[in-house]
């Protein structure tokens, strides 16, 4: 069976992580093997880099280089082998987050990010297959003010979660711009109950023939 690369995206607090268990259960119930992972992270080296990226102050180029270094290790060691086995790869964030956070949020040059993307997501057969990209990206669209309310008191904020709402408005606009150009994006109205958000996700996957309709329960 062909692998499926599904990514979850959105600003901090949009509700992505709340639905990963249910997504895993949904695909498992369809007889699929699921590899569940996240970025930055997903390998021992990338998790080490994640701690630096999320906690240490650094300039946008350093941040972008570390994010892509973590991604390269993750792609080579986890994502590509899982897709080659035919797994469903559920990845909490991928390169769209870099364009949204480092590009739109930090104001870093998207042309440099595209160059790094070309190096990191290419493989020996890239000329034939093109760059590794998600098959489907579930984008949780939520107003930054609401996301901030949801996160308030939920956990100790990291470097990104401590950013002002203006930063997240730029990140949200960055996601909207990415979604406009890429049919793989599925926009989820995240300003709804968990149940209603889950129904949107399940319906979008069923519409694309990725799961049988109405097969899973709400998270
Ligand atoms: N539909 C919802 N309505 C109200 N609160 C929600 C909803 N979905 C999630 N939450 C709550 O909002 C907070 C953020 O949710 P979650 O951790 O899933 O977001 P996230 O997008 O994964 O955030 P991050 O990227 O920062 O890890 C949590 O406290 C969660 O319980
Ligand atoms: C992949 C990626 C992530 N980030 C930021 C976005 C979030 O604030 C954190 C990850 O935390 P989460 O709770 O696991 O969502 O990292 C980034 O700035 N650039 C990236 O490429």
UniProtKB/TrEMBL annotation:
It comes from the Bacteria. SUPFAM superfamilies: P-loop containing nucleoside triphosphate hydrolases (SSF52540). ATP binds at residues 10-17. Gene3D superfamilies: P-loop containing nucleotide triphosphate hydrolases. It catalyses: dTMP + ATP = dTDP + ADP. It is an enzyme of class 2 (transferase). Keywords: ATP-binding, Kinase, Nucleotide biosynthesis, Nucleotide-binding, Transferase. One of its GO terms (molecular function) is dTMP kinase activity. NCBIfam families: DTMP_kinase. Phosphorylation of dTMP to form dTDP in both de novo and salvage pathways of dTTP synthesis. HAMAP family: Thymidylate_kinase. Belongs to the thymidylate kinase family. This is Thymidylate kinase.
